[in-house]
Design goal:
The structure is a single chain. The chain has a domain at 39-160 and 193-199. Helices cover 15% and strands 41% of the residues. It contains 2 helices and 13 strands. Strands 1, 2, 3, 4, 5 and 6 form a 6-stranded antiparallel sheet that branches. A 5-stranded antiparallel sheet has the order 7-8-9-10-13, with no helix packed on it. A hairpin with a 2-residue loop joins strand 7 and strand 8. It is elongated and about 85 Å long.
């Protein structure tokens, strides 16, 4: 009995020292900023945030929401002066990514910084292999918000890779040259294609 009591007293003392050490570190350590994630996912929904340059003098937060059930990408901007959203713009992902009916799709998305006060949304679909780049901005006349597509490409080769011929051997054991190797066509060069508006503010 005395041994058990001694063990319990020792555990309690150790726990007290441990808690005291943690409190001391928290009290004297330098404060660290909380880092929030830029995107999140739950079941049939994906959400991401990023800066939107609606007004150069006022920094605004943009919110992207991908809804698997409706097959739409929604976007809005938070008006910090009023503490309200400015309405939702939407993009029909079925037509945008040319998705066939009943296709099992899987979207990935995240935001990235592109310029002062402006972020872009990078949206990939793993079944079709398509990759799109989007931004949000002010609607016509500065009212509401619109989604603009800057580029749409694929991260998989559209054409099969040509096999490289190798030297063969004839019936007498002589080497038969394979001839010239095929040269893949050069990739097109140039700047980004023009911005394509793909979603405007819906009716409230």
């Amino acid at each position: 009995m005395k041994q058990a009591t001694g063990v319990l007293c020792g555990l309690a003392a150790g726990l007290g020292v441990g808690v005291g050490a943690v409190v001391a570190v928290l009290a004297t350590g330098s404060p660290k900023p909380a880092m929030a994630g830029a995107n999140d996912r739950h079941e049939d929904y994906v959400m991401a945030t990023g800066a939107v340059n609606i007004n150069p003098k006022v920094q605004a937060d943009g919110v992207w929401l991908l809804d698997y059930k409706s097959g739409k990408l929604l976007g809005t901007v938070i008006d910090k002066a009023q503490g309200k959203i400015v309405g939702w713009a939407e993009v029909d992902l079925v037509s945008e990514f040319e998705i066939a009916p009943k296709t099992d799709v899987h979207f990935l998305m995240t935001t990235g910084w592109v310029s002062s006060g402006q972020s872009a949304l990078y949206l990939a679909e793993t079944t079709t292999g398509k990759f799109g780049v989007y931004t949000m901005g002010a609607g016509l006349g500065g009212a509401g918000v619109v989604v603009r597509r800057h580029d749409m490409t694929t991260f998989r080769p559209e054409k099969p890779v040509l096999p490289v011929p190798v030297d063969g051997v004839d019936a007498k054991g002589g080497v038969v040259p394979a001839g010239p190797r095929p040269v893949a066509p050069a990739a097109p060069t140039g700047g980004l294609p023009p911005i394509v508006p793909v979603g405007g503010t819906d009716k409230k």
